[in-house]
């Protein structure tokens, strides 16, 4: 089982940037892929970005590709999501998890609000 704690969310104007962090504990962090997911009010949680165990491969939701960058520091058991050129439609609670997601590894999430 993996436990995660997300941080770094906040209120930002459209066009601004935020960097989310996810500190993980439990299983060997460097052995598995990690992902970021988000859930907007009234919507289901959906995939945003993922990174392989080594960090060599990354994957993105089409609407964030080119604006968001996922990275990881295996020595710190932390995964990051750098979000640039934020848009109001990026407003959501952001979660990290294993990728593919494990049902028992969801954290509390961190709120990102983008004002127009």
Can you put this structure into words, describing what you see?
0% of the residues lie in helices and 51% in strands. It contains no helices and ten strands. The mean pLDDT is 96.
Task: Please tag this protein with its features.
single chain; mainly beta; six-stranded mixed beta sheet; 10 strands; 51% strand; globular
The overall pLDDT, averaged over residues, is 96
Radius of gyration, in Å, reads 13 Å
Strand content: over 45%
What is the count of DSSP helices, taking H or I runs of 4+ residues? 0
What overall form do the CA principal axes indicate?
globular
Low-confidence stretches: none
- Compute the number of strand runs: 10
Order of helices and strands: EEEEEEEEEE
Give the termini distance in whole angstroms.
39 Å
Q: Which strands sit side by side, in order, in the main sheet? A: 2-10-9-4-5-6
Residue share in helices? under 10%
- The structure class reads mainly beta
Q: Please give the largest β-sheet.
A: 6 strands, mixed
The gist of it:
The strands form 2 sheets. The protein has a 6-stranded mixed β-sheet, with no helix packed on it.
List the helices and strands and how they pair.
Elements (H helix, E strand, L loop, with lengths): L1 E6 L2 E4 L4 E9 L7 E6 L6 E6 L6 E3 L7 E6 L4 E6 L8 E7 L11 E6 L1
Parallel strand pairs: 2-10
Antiparallel strand pairs: 1-3, 3-8, 4-5, 4-9, 5-6, 7-8, 9-10
